[in-house]
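>> received
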Amino acid sequence: MGVKPLEDRVLVKPIEAESKTASGIYLPEGAKEKPVRGQIIATGPGKRLDNGKRAEMTVRKGDTVVYGKYAGTEVEIKGIKHLILRESELLGVIEG
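>> returned
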């Protein structure tokens, strides 16, 4: 089963934060922060403009992005948690 986002939405696989601190202390599940970074798995075709054309998406499959802590809708695909977000909910693209 695959998911193809509609309009200006993107499918993001969250990148989990490290479970161990720099000093070597392991963090319990309850102490971990909710992920705010992820990799784009799929993008929609873009938002339809008033003239009938579609706006080009500014992010591509494979980009690593930053999003708000409580942004998007969580979905589970093949047992893996993903997020569906609007492109406008993305805060930035991590380069490099």
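>> The CA atoms of residues 4 and 54 lie 16 Å apart.
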